[in-house]
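Human: I hope this is not a bother. Would you mind checking the protein record under this note? Thank you for your patience.
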Amino acid sequence: MAAVTAAQPRSSKTESYVDNKRKEDIRQANIKAARAVADAVRTSLGPKGMDKMISTANGEVIITNDGATISNKMEVLQPAAKMLVDLSKSQDSAAGDGTTTVVVIASALLKQCLTLLSNGIHPTVISDSLHKASIKAVDVLTAMAVPLELSDRESLIKSASTSLNSKVVSQYSTLLAPLAVDSVLSVVDPAKPDMVDLRDIKIVKKLGGTVDDTQLVKGLVFDKKVSHAAGGPTRMENAKIAVIQFQISPPKTDIEQSIVVSDYTQMDRILKEERNYILGMIKKIKATGCNVLLIQKSILRDAVTDLSLHYLAKAKIMVVKDVEREDIEFITKTLNCLPIANIEHFRVEKLGHADLVEEVSLGDGKIVKVTGIKDMGRTTTVLVRGSNQLVLDEAERSLHDALCVVRCLVSKRFLIAGGGAPEIELSRQLGAWSKVLHGMEGYCVRSFAEALEVIPYTLAENAGLNPIAIVTELRNRHAQGEINAGINVRKGQITNILEENVVQPLLVSTSAITLATECVRMILKIDDIVNVR
């Protein structure tokens, strides 16, 4: 009997040992997979970061150093690695910028977690300590931040420039940064001053020219030409614009069927009826004084036929066809008009008014510009130009990041230094705080503080500087009380980064730290992967 009881604890010990081993293996595999994703993105951090060339399965090539785009295009199969891709997406939707930073911070935290786990600290203890440290980090960052007024256009431009400086189109930041600031400020609604909907800023890409030719248009731009198959007008002053969602073409039968007409007189009757039907519609349109038609793309039948275009041209009505369905809301908001779904509802009060609608030649194509809109809604259009498709796409992505940075400053009006300064300051203050804490908690917070040094280290490394010397010097400066000392990658030395105009919104930094911590805590808590077939 005694022998049996002695054997029992040993067997349970063995079982728990095997179990833990599997859990440790899964944790390590998850952390390694997640860090592999981060290592792919890491070299693109900062103004001197490298660019990635992404080749998709259908032969499309993308050149970018936007963390969210790189992560998005990766075909990641491991579930924990997918979490890092989603982390980058979350940062993109929350702040718009700092998508590379958030992945790099998460990777550094995971590396520290591996060390803590191998020292025998329980994952739950690490997780709770990281949560505490991230809350403290947000408080420290908020204390460092400089308040900002929206009237201070110069500071807004500086932060937009900082975002653009790490992009492929960084040489055009002097043009794109003011453009981003002006476009966001023009769509801010005084009734809701903290909210900016970026859908109110439409980016239209047109191949040809250089990024220098990018312009802000107070009005509408259509990347299509006017339908002048029948010699209709291509320029219209004092335009009365209708956005229609019905077809100006003869009706079809409701179901797929063919009608056989054997008699010529009946054939003439059909054609005559078609003409009368179209003429009746155009007379109703003309009666309201409408002289510009924007016709929504139709999938059921042709939105316009050659015959209807001929009659519209005779009536001196300008036609822009194939307007995309998703653009209708933006167009009606801009023109301050209503979309018309049926010819019977065609009223004068549903029309929009503009001083000029004209077709403009641009590069090798043409665009339609609507300017001088009366009672224009709070929207704006940016016409982006580029010498090739790669530059054009990257210019659009960079401009989107700059717009997001200005949006962050509108919703949370605080600026913070860039260049690795906030991370080193956080590392220093959290390191000091960890000495006050007791037990394992202090140990975990110290690891969190060390992990944050990865940002200045990577910035220096990507700029070709000596990272160890730079980070040591940076720590020294911060210990002496220079909280805004950061890495100036252009000069290759440490300077007061606020004076160098390298600033970013507080929201970008706080969001990066909270999101990265949240993701790492989630990966830590996973101890098994169950595949369901």
Notes: The first strand starts at residue 52 and ends at 55. The chain has a mean pLDDT of 87. The domain at 16-147+416-525 is CATH 1.10.560.10 (GROEL; domain 1).
